[in-house]
Amino acid sequence: MIKIRKSNEIINNIDANVSVIFAGGILALLLCVGLSTDSLMSYNAKRELQTALDSAVLAAAINADEDEHNSVGNAAFHSNISNKRLSNIALGFSESNDVVHGIAVANLPLFFAGILPSDMVTIRVSSRANVSLPEAFPCIISLNPNAQPGVVINGGAEIDAPGCEIHSHSVRNPALTINGGTDINVERLCMAGSSIVDNSNGSFRGRIETNCNVAEDPYSAGLPVPNTSCTHSGRVYNVPVVNLNPGVYCGSFNFNSGVNRINLAPGTYVLNNSIWSIDGSFLQGDEITFYLNDDNSRFNWNSSIQGQLKAPTSGDYADILFTERPGLSRRNFIFHDENGFDFEGTIYLPSKDVTVNGGSTIRSRNLQLIVGSLILNDSALNIENPIDENTEFSLVYLSE
Q: I want to staple 171 with a disulfide (CB 3.0 to 4.6 A). Which of 151, 193, 229, 249 is the partner?
């Protein structure tokens, strides 16, 4: 005799089976979410460790003697670690053949520690930085990709800078113009663009490379912005010797032909809506920085100016002789008819189209010119070879 089960019994059994299947599906889904979470956490932790270790080996290679690699590397590493879940971090640094090696090991607890066989994963990363003496150094960098041209060297201009390179980011037509009657002694002209005008007739000693991998802006991350509250108001000077102190200069400052010498005390000179007009004076300043705070601030370098200016060797503006507030509009910056400037430091004016006019001479043992664009007219730029056995800088780069 065939028994027919009641429909409600069948429905109850189906419901029970569905509940079991649903519960199993939920567990599988949770397990997948947990594994995905663990994988993502491990990936992010490894990436953070790698970034921190890369920074550490670079810092050790740049800033430390061999016996200080561990202390400098550790400090740089931990300043870049924010993951609080990482534990038992072990670091090691070593150097051989001008290569700084770094290894970092850390433990990371797993999100699904109670389900998986192990409740912890060990993460290992390694990095190394090569240190090498460069064959040449980018002493001049023209940053504006739309400057047409980025660099112009006109007749009568002389550049004597062995061991230096000129780099231009310009991709316009032309990116570089060299006219006749020039005398150029640099290691290389490196142009991002492909079009140049070369009328030098063999006076250029070096090589020109187009579509070149130009040096990047070394200060693209930005420099500190100083206080801009006025501490000095505009005035006219006629006395033979003027002594100035750091601060914020607002308004017009005229140094007339009766001023023979301007002494600049160490520090930062901020020009805030300020124009300095200098006529026939000698400028002297060690450990100084000029900071242009706005589009209106500028120097009017008039006839027969001389000077010896050196940038600071430490502090917020270490190695910076001239700089400006980020984001300024494109403006001209002109050196005109100077009898001779002896600069040491970096002129960093990325918004400025810098022109060095007839009769001007700029010479230096240690000068880097980083500007929007550059024009040399019947002027002389002399930079002693910065690459020698006693050089204080090297190329440092990640090789792993």
A: 193
Q: Three-state SS for 49?
A: helix
**Start-to-end CA span in the chain (Å):** 81
- Residue located via tokens 């400028």: 283
pLDDT of residue 33: 53
Q: Which two tokens stand for residue 44?
A: 């992010």
Our CA angle for 234, 238, 243, nearest 5°, is 70
Structure tokens at 84: 């609080």
CB 383 within 8 A of CB 364: yes
| Distance between CA atoms of residues 69 and 293, nearest Å | 39
8 Å CB contact between 299 and 332: no
- CA 385 → CA 66, 186, 307, 362, distances in Å? 27, 10, 21, 15
Chain Cα centroid distance, residue 347: 13
Q: How many C-beta neighbours within 10 Å does residue 203 have?
A: 16
Six-digit token string for 10 = 């069948």
Q: What's the pLDDT band for 390 if we cut at 50, 70, 90? A: very low
d(CA 291, CA 400): 38
pLDDT band of 246, cuts 50, 70, 90: very high
d(CA 348, CA 323): 5
Nearest alpha-carbon partner for 350 in 189, 169, 213: 169
The phi and psi torsions of 32 (rounded to 5 degrees) equal -60, -45
For the cut 50, the answer to whether the pLDDT of residue 243 exceeds it is yes
What is the tens place of the pLDDT at every residue in 127-164?
Answer: 888 766 556 788 999 999 999 999 999 988 888 888 88
Question: Cα–Cα distance between 151 and 174 in angstroms, integer?
Answer: 9
- 179: helix, coil or strand? coil
What the block records as the tokens of 180 is 């006749």
Is the pLDDT at 4 greater than 60? The verdict is no
Among residues 145, 160, 148, 131, which one has the least CA distance to residue 66? 131
Share of the chain above pLDDT 90, in %: 39
Residue 86 has a pLDDT of: 85
pTM (global) more than 0.70: no
The mean pLDDT of 217-224, rounded to a whole number, is: 88
What is the average pLDDT value for the chain, to the nearest integer?
83
Tell me whether residue 122 is exposed, middle or buried, using C-beta atoms within 10 angstroms of its C-beta: 0 to 12, 13 to 18, 19 or more: exposed
> Which of 397, 398, 391 is closest to 133 using CA atoms?
391
